[in-house]
Amino acid sequence: MVAGVVSVFTGTAQAAESTLGAAAAQSGRYYGTAVAASKLGDSTYSTILRREFNSITAENEMKWDATEPNRNQFNYGNGDRIASQARSQGAALRGHALLWHQQQPGWAQGLSGSDLRSAAINHVTQVATHYRGQIHSWDVVNEAFADGNSGGRRDSNLQRTGNDWIEAAFRAARTADPNAKLCYNDYNTDGINAKSTGIYNMVADFKNRGVPIDCVGIQSHLSSNSNMSTYQANLQRFADLGVDLQITELDVGGSGSGQANVYRQVTQACMAVSRCTGITTWGVTDRYTWRPNDTPLLFDSNYQKKQAYQSVLDALNGGGGNPGTGTPLRGAGSNRCLDVPNQATATGTRLNIWDCNGQANQQWTYTSAQELTVYSGGTLRCLDASGAGTANGTPVIIWTCHGGANQKWNRNSDGTIRNVQSGLCVEVSGSGTANGSQVQLWSCSGGNNQRWATQ
Ligand code: XIL
């Protein structure tokens, strides 16, 4: 036992999972998506759905207009189709949404006062009773707070029945389905702002007075330039009230690394808050999205995985440091860090060791594709065995990432980094310890010039 290497690659000995649902399950979370019943017949769609997601939300099929088209006449056909899809793939089912000012049936839009209140509460009771035992979480009330700086309720026919309509809905839902988690769900709550503070105050009041509420849904309809600076702190302050958080309708307008970055930040924020129990994207593919101009989802319109997909998977697997601000790899023998000389980005640049300085040319990210990347965006580079060499002494360089076996690495619990193609290990040439000592591949010996710690 060599002192000082026990924390090498902590937490990465477990294999990285290769689907979103399995990766999320490692920390007891789910990874879900909104599903449209009308798309279940698309076999590419349903193949991805089955493979990647272990929670399903009905995109429209459990809303008031769908489930009670005429007063006291219920239609559960499409909602049940979604429920049965969830059951058949062993996914959790999120119910969405019992009461909302939008997508109300025409008959309800025409009601007011106590007549509307009793119709609304009856709706909650009937629908929650129908799905009792099948629902992991219900969005009991959706989007009841106003945008802007008031921090108050949104005006709506439901709000005009009295400020207590929300708690009445939660009490009715609890009675109808005591085992479902009951959520309040809203958008523009992606940080600490007047709207999220209004909701925070309501939840605090509910907890104080014993109104049944278990979770807050943060919809997270975002874009590449969304300000994420207080996203995690906002989740945490709700968690501190004693409710769970769920990211319920995530989509991020944009493309490439900008989009991937916001997806990563959402994922990492949820992972960092123990009461954040799962993430749902609002759809599977850019082919079918309510934001058709924004390409906001994880699979493109041809069902290919996007960069955003990889960033989410990496983050769920516990990696996914900001590309370019990943993790230093400190040599056990030299106490110096794996470094690209002079911040070079040219392909073919050979690595050396240098004093650890936290700069971008020393920040390594281990991806679920087993690459070790440095930098980000257009200068993203991969650790590479030069010329796909397999002989002792092969230089270790940076190159554009191409998925070849000479760019894939196994990170072992003793801190060694073994090339998948050659089976050779990354080492400091000649056991050098000085700044500028070169890095190469050599037969794995476990020597201290071949062990690299993340601290
Ligand atoms: C959207 C659906 O995706 C669309 O198909 C439908 O036409 C309108 O509603 N917030 C919510 C969701 O809570 O129910 C909305 O879903 C998107 C915004």
Please explain how this structure is put together:
The chain is 26% helix and 20% strand. The longest helix has 18 residues, at 113-130. It has 455 residues and is an alpha/beta fold. The two termini are 18 Å apart. The protein has an 8-stranded parallel barrel, surrounded by 5 helices. It has a 4-stranded antiparallel beta sheet with strand order 13-14-15-16, with no helix packed on it. The site of (3S,4R)-3-hydroxy-2-oxopiperidin-4-yl beta-D-xylopyranoside has 6 residues, from loops. Residues 59-60, 142, 219, 249, 290 line the site of (3S,4R)-3-hydroxy-2-oxopiperidin-4-yl beta-D-xylopyranoside.
The gist of it:
This protein has 455 residues and is an alpha/beta fold. It is built from eleven helices and 21 strands. Strand 17 (409-411) and strand 18 form a beta hairpin.
